[in-house]
Design a protein that fits this description.
By secondary structure, the protein is mainly α. The protein contains one helix and no strands. The protein has one domain. It starts with a helix and ends with a helix. The model has no long low-confidence stretch (mean pLDDT about 95). Keywords: Coiled coil.
């Protein structure tokens, strides 16, 4: 009877130890699941931020392209005006030379 009681007590102790180990494991799993949920939420938020930044970058690139086009148009206009100015200066110089030759 004593031997049976000892075996029963040993089995109960083992069962209690296993139950405690299972509870610990369940708690760790729940903690891990909570951490994973937090990480997932943070990742989703970062993904949203990255998408917003990408859209902003694309808009900025479009704006820069348009600005470059305007700059190039202005450069072309300036170049054309400079050419016209040089032509007019040359015409004036020729006119002054002819007038100077006529006066001489």
């Amino acid at each position: 009877v004593v031997n049976g009681n000892t075996e029963r007590a040993d089995l109960l102790a083992q069962i209690n130890d296993l139950k405690a180990a299972l509870r610990d494991r369940d708690e760790r799993m729940k903690a891990t699941e909570t951490e994973l949920a937090i990480i997932k939420e943070q990742s989703e938020n970062r993904l949203k931020e990255l998408k917003a930044l990408k859209m902003d970058l694309e808009k900025s690139q479009c704006i820069n392209i348009k600005k470059e086009e305007v700059i190039n148009q202005l450069k072309d206009a300036m170049s054309s005006l400079e050419e016209k100015l040089v032509e007019k200066e040359n015409m004036l110089n020729m006119k002054y030379l002819k007038e100077a030759e006529g006066n001489a």
